[in-house]
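Question thread 4412

I'm putting together a teaching handout and wanted feedback from people who do this every day. The idea is simple: show students a protein as raw sequence, then show them the structure tokens that encode its fold, then repeat with a second protein so they can compare. Below is the first pair exactly as I plan to print it.
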Amino acid sequence: MRLSMPQIAAAVCLMSGIIPGVAQAQRRDLREEPRPAIYRSPNGIWLLDLPPAMEDALDRYNRDFEPWTQQDYRGLPDYEPSPRQVPWAVIGDFNGDGRADLAIAGRTDRDVVVVFVLSSGRSKYRAFDADREPYDPDDRLSIRLPQLTYMYPGRYVVADPRLNYPRQLIVDQPAVQITGGRRQGAVIYVVENNAVVPYYLSDRTAGPPSAGGRPGRQPLPPIRPTKGSSGNP
């Protein structure tokens, strides 16, 4: 069957009207992608709701992984939960791709772990532990709970064992601070080049003072502090 020129023109107009609509629907679907959420229930309990893609990533990481809950942190002083943070979980765009990521604390059969769940493509996530401490499964008292806190982008003073003084660290994306457990101080975890890098925070002034008008030593590249060490020079 041959189409007349008016029929061909009508078909082209119809297709040109459909294709942009499909593209808009696809963009809308991406914007409406399920996101992790921290919310407070009517009875005052803080809960964490994860999209299926994040749950799948945690299952691939370790099927024995169990996140902590508010019950595990009862009586924790001076902590303010919010839709961005609870003591065992923090939500933020840690790798700077515009999608929500997750840091979550829990346990496997023999380790207390802090797991980062980072976006790695459309509707995909990968999960890996950024911190791990063993415990005795027969001794509940051997478990030391880490405490997670949301950290805004900004400048932080971090210890650097290669320098005589701490240095400034510029963080472009949200990060996670972890305290508690067997740590001897606060550690900030930053995503750099798709890897989670820990830095021990310092309460000292960054950079050595100038002497005789000579400039101080320049900061060195990021380092990985030795686990279990305070990292203070």
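The second pair follows. I'd like the answer to focus on this one:
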Amino acid sequence: MDAVRLVGVTKGHPVGAIQAALEAGLTDLGENRVEEAEEKRAALGSVDAIWHFIGHVQGRKARRAVDVADLVHSVDSMKLAERMARVGEDRAAPVPVLIQVNTSGEGSKGGLEGEDVVEGIHRIAELPGLRVEGLMTMAPFVDDEIVLARTFAGLRSVLEQVRAVTGRVGAELSMGMTNDLEVAVREGSTMVRIGTALFGERETT
């Protein structure tokens, strides 16, 4: 089995804890608020790390999200994709992204969904200012492994369908968090987003 990339979700954790994790060998850091990501990147300086943005991106913050992240996991609509693509075109450097797909069917989850999801991904991948590295999904917060496996297998299936018709989408599957990472890895995840299992519970404010 290929190696699975571990993205340490540092939301709500102090810079000192992040620095300790980097010194222990963590290489990928994930944040889901633009402001917090900006503050932490500034505080840590030029550390040897890859920054992932994993939260919902408000359209008005698209440019800032691109500035702060090496990979944006959560492109969840054509409108957002077009905003980010314009940034990439302005800079003559395609923006690396993952397209978020709602394979759980939950109304609270963002992402492309429905019968036209493969076509939607294909249209986003055609935008010249983006480099689509793969797909991302979020599973329901449940213990039912059948439900979790169905959600993750659904994303893998979508990716297989997409890659059968276009070479413009990479093979990354960002799926799995602390509570469901084992199921996600079994279903083909290439990136797991882990916070609590690495850093403990977040500090309350």
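Top answer:
Good format. For the second protein you could add a caption like this: Residues 145-165 form the longest helix (21 residues). Strands lie at 5-9, 28-31, 50-53, 71-75, 95-100, 130-136, 169-174, 191-194.
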